[in-house]
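Example record for the data management plan.
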Amino acid sequence: MTEPATPERPDVPAKSAEPRGNRWAMTFTLSLLTMLLSLGGAGYWFGWPWAQQQWQRLDAIENQLATLSAESKRPLPDLPALAQAAADSSVRSTFGQLETDWRRDLASWQAQQAAERAESARQISDRMGRVESQMDRLLAVDRRAWLGQEAIFLTRLAGQRLLVARDVEAAMSLLTQADDLLRDTGEPRFEASRLALAKDRAALAAVPRIDQVGLYGRLSALIDQMHALQVVMEIGPQRSAGVTEVDDQEWGELASRWQAALAALSDHLVIRRRSEDIAQLMTPEWAALARQNGRMLLEQAQIAMLSANQPLYERSLDRARNFVSLFSEQDSDRVNSILDEIGALEEEAISPDLPDLIESRSLLEAQVKRLGRESAD
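Corresponding structural encoding:
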């Protein structure tokens, strides 16, 4: 690029140019000062409020920074605790609502149940009233019939005790209770029945008492004596050729005695004869069987005594006496003692006659039936 050409200045005289230049400089200086003053005044006028506003904003920012710094130094809130508290508050609110609903439902259910119970009680009361009315009509509110039925039962039970166990004491106690019940009724119709019961009680009081324990002990003692009874005949040693033979009469007595023993044992024992020699039959085994036979006869007498079977009792003792008599020569003292005791036992009455209570029971049943028919009418 070409530089612009500098215009040529006309030559001015030196003296006139110097003052003009000074004035220009002063004018420029004054203008510059004026401009600077104007700019300063305008800047002050317009810039000072803006500066104050900026300073205020800076102060606000510093205050905010200080507040944030102070808050940052505070402990942070416990978020789990806050969450738990919020959850507890929600749960309590839910439970409170549920409790309110439950109490309302419970009150309603209780009221319903109370009404149902009251209705059930009323129905039961009505039914009980009707049942009582029916019972009053059927039984005519007659306590006498109930007492009479109980007296019949006691009389029947007394008869069973006499029939089965021959228990006189128990029968008398039962008849006494039946008479007390009839007395409590105050009914004159039962006088005949009470008289019949009094006769039965008097008959039972006259029955001889059987000492079953004593009789059983006496028979047991005889059984012990039977075990000690000497039943084996002693056979003498073999004689030498110089000793005289036993005569036929002695052998005949031994044979007859042996036959009698076999006849007594025939009901219980079976003996097989192996030899005709009597000495060979008198063995310990035979003695044990003989004692056992006597024991069984006495035990049979015990059973008959306990069951109040008088014929069997007498028959057993008679057979035992006959059996023991066979050995009177071998053990005479013991045999005589056993025979005396058996004779004494045979005189005991183990089955006395007892009243059957049929008359009193029949009268009582008839009176109760008659009383029941009258009450029903």
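Summary line stored alongside the record: Confidence is low (pLDDT under 50) at residues 1-16, 233-246, 270-282.
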